[in-house]
Design a protein that fits this description.
18 strands, 495 residues, 22% strand, 11-stranded mixed β-sheet, alpha/beta
């Protein structure tokens, strides 16, 4: 074992012990974070307008601060972007993370000197947690690749601006710089396809041990590598044994990845966003990711089924239950207050608090009152694939409300790597899995309101072509699993 690997093990144990202290005292930890946030922001414009100086309890906070999304908080954010100080958080942010807005162009998410360290520490601690649990540390001597956005930053009224992954690239610790790939120059390439080809050229002869990125874009990298040398990824990189990912569920990609790699590798799931780093997988044997309760973020939760009610009940960490679909609401040391990030989560454990991402509150299908969410379609596809040699590259689901003939239905757009021999039978398996998970959907099928699932086969690279056509190929961009309309469906090329 190298000195570097030995040191990593020692540091991993230290971080594990620190994590256990707050994980075993979740309610007290969150209360402390809440009080610190309110105290720190009392003199900001937002704090004054919402009477932070009179807030002595969580109940006061609920009364004073309504749930908002980006558009509802925008008047404050716009002032921050213009260069004004002490608006949402003391002083000015040190960065804006630029993300794609759904209704009005770009969004500018503030990152402060208080919030930025937690983004870096969480990613580091996820790896250290893996080392502590498994005892595996030799990978720290190999090369590591992080598929991410360009680190080139712009400036807006004295504040640096870029994609979160590009900002984070400036914080790679010195002890990883020699191992980190791709090169700075390659990382700065904006065009994703050009960038992937350049990454392939740089890494193909290296000893890659860790590969990280959104699964769909890592898959593209793997496919380009395999095209180049016609070998499984596991043979090209003999010491590649750890895949780190975030942004989407890995399960729909797992069979394809294992085929591309030629063997199984360990994986660590992360839950990062521009608004905060919320959770990471702390166990290879337990389901879900450890919710980070000590990272400058105060969490609230609203049941997804009640979210669009006039005054939905807001729950704190001590009030949540297993298996309920919650909308995640955050208040942070970057100045986001009772902020709806749009993600829905479910708790898989309450000791400690672990979560899975179940979907997006805006990404669902309920054209007929079925309330189908992302987690359900992913699980249904996984169940249909199990025990077969079917492999799926990518998929999305949309309602067909006005078919030319017969009843309406859910249309699954799937790009297959290996197609099922009987497509109709495969569609029925998906349908049966959906009916087991979602009673509303089951009632609609039983009542002859909907017909069973219909699959439309998408041409090879069809989803990549779609993402390219809307300017969202690569980086941190993700394809929605579900749509309540046919905006995506109508742009896909079908076989």
């Amino acid at each position: 074992m190298s000195i570097k690997a030995f040191a990593a093990k020692l540091f991993a144990k230290h971080i594990y012990n620190k994590t256990q202290k707050w994980a075993k005292n979740p309610i007290e930890t969150q209360q402390k974070v809440f009080q610190e946030l309110i105290q720190k922001a009392k003199e900001t414009k937002f704090g004054k307008e919402h009477y932070f100086d009179k807030i002595t309890s969580y109940e006061d906070y609920q009364k004073n601060v309504p749930i908002r999304d980006y558009e509802q908080l925008r008047t404050y954010v716009d002032e921050v972007v213009k260069g004004k100080e002490n608006i949402l958080w003391p002083g000015k942010p040190i960065y804006f993370a630029k993300t794609s807005g759904t209704t009005s162009g770009a969004k500018y998410i503030p990152l402060t000197k208080e919030s930025m360290p937690f983004h870096i520490e969480a990613a580091r601690n996820a790896i250290l947690s893996y080392i502590h649990e498994t005892g595996k540390a030799d990978f720290v001597d190999g090369k590591m690749i992080f598929l991410q956005g360009s680190p080139i930053l712009e400036e807006k009224n004295g504040v640096k601006l870029g994609r979160l992954s590009g900002i984070v690239a400036h914080y790679v610790p010195a002890y990883l710089q020699k191992n980190r790939m791709p090169s700075w120059e390659t990382n700065c390439i904006e065009d994703w396809e050009t960038k992937v080809d350049a990454i392939v050229g740089e890494t193909i002869d290296e000893d890659m041990s860790v590969i990280s990125g959104i699964p769909s874009w890592v898959q593209m990298y793997f496919e380009r590598l395999k095209e180049k040398v016609n070998k499984p990824i596991g043979e090209i990189f003999k010491n590649f044994n750890l895949f780190i990912y975030g942004g989407v569920n890995y399960e729909p990609y797992r069979a394809k990845f294992e085929n591309l790699i030629g063997r199984k590798v360990d994986a660590i799931e992360l839950f990062p966003a521009s608004e905060g780093f919320f959770a990471y997988q702390d166990s290879q044997t337990e389901k879900g990711m450890l919710l980070l309760l000590n990272s400058g973020i105060f969490y609230e939760f609203v049941k997804a089924e009640e979210f669009f009610n006039e005054n939905p009940k807001r729950y704190t960490i001590g009030e949540v239950e297993l298996g309920i679909n919650y909308v995640l609401i955050i208040s942070t040391n970057a100045g986001l207050w009772a902020y709806n990030i749009g993600d829905t989560i479910q708790f898989t454990s309450l000791k400690p608090y672990r979560v899975i991402v179940s979907g997006r509150i805006k990404h669902y299908i309920s054209a007929f009152g079925e309330h189908v969410i992302g987690k359900e379609v992913e699980a249904a596809l996984q169940e249909a694939i199990e025990g077969t040699d079917v492999r799926v590259n990518e998929f999305t689901v949309a309602p067909q409300i006005n078919p030319e003939n017969g009843l309406p239905y859910h249309e699954w757009f799937i790009e297959f790597e290996n197609k099922p021999t009987d497509l109709e039978d495969f569609a029925l398996k998906i349908d049966e899995a959906m009916r087991k998970q979602n009673t509303y959907y089951d009632d609609l099928i039983s009542g002859n309101i909907l017909r069973t699932v219909v699959i439309s086969k998408v041409v090879k690279n069809g989803f990549q072509d779609y993402m390219k056509s809307i300017g969202k190929l690569g980086g941190q961009n993700k394809l929605p699993r579900l749509s309540n309309d046919r905006k995506i469906a109508d742009l896909l090329r079908i076989e």
